[in-house]
């Protein structure tokens, strides 16, 4: 399944369900990284990250997913014994975004599909009721 993050509108605010879904994904990602305390040496405030996630627009997803992906890359480098200087700028490509976004969606890919089908059926119900009037 292709992930097209460029198609996400930066002005389109997330629904409450989507915010909770993404927050859950962030929490799951952080659980995976919990043993890598060197990542959280003051450069990352988890409360700020959670707050940003809850207030995110769709356009901010690129940054959030890219940041999570950069942490994973940094953790992997550290694990392999590579020196990762604090403050080093990491280059995250579109392929990295797509890979990270795919991991986020694997937590429960049905969440977005359920929401889309529910919204579509609601719109159809409204359209039918207006047609009867």
Can you give a write-up of this model?
- This is DFDF domain-containing protein.
- The structure is a single chain.
- This protein is mainly α and 133 residues long.
- It has one domain.
- It has 5 helices and no strands.
- Helix 3 crosses helix 4.
- It is rod-shaped, with a radius of gyration of 18 Å.
Secondary structure: elements and pairs:
Elements: H1 16-32, H2 46-54, H3 60-79, H4 94-106, H5 110-132
Helix pairs in contact: 3-4
| Total number of distinct structural domains | 1
Shape: rod-shaped
Beta-strand content: under 5%
- Please count the beta strands (DSSP E, at least 2 residues each): 0
Through-space gap between termini: 41 Å
Spans of 5+ residues with little confidence (pLDDT < 50)?
Answer: 1-11, 34-50
**Helical percent range?**
55-70%
Overall mean confidence score, pLDDT: 55
Structural class: mainly alpha
Q: The biggest beta sheet, please? A: none
Spell the H/E element sequence: HHHHH
The radius of gyration is 18 Å
With helices defined by DSSP (H or I, 4 residues minimum), what is the helix count? 5
Protein name: DFDF domain-containing protein
Organism: Brassica campestris (Field mustard)
InterPro entries: DFDF
Domain DFDF: 85-127
């Amino acid at each position: 399944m292709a992930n097209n993050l460029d198609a996400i509108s930066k002005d389109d605010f997330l629904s409450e369900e989507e915010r909770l879904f993404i927050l859950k994904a962030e929490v799951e990602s952080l659980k995976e990284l919990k043993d890598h305390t060197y990542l959280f040496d003051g450069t990352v405030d988890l409360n700020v990250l959670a707050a940003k996630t809850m207030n995110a627009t769709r356009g901010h997803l690129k940054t959030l997913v890219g940041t999570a992906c950069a942490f994973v890359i940094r953790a992997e480098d550290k694990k392999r014994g590579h020196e990762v200087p604090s403050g080093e700028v990491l280059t995250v490509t579109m392929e990295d975004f797509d890979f990270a976004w795919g991991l986020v969606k694997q937590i429960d890919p049905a969440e977005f599909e359920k929401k889309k089908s529910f919204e579509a059926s609601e719109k159809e119900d409204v359209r039918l009721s207006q047609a009867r009037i």
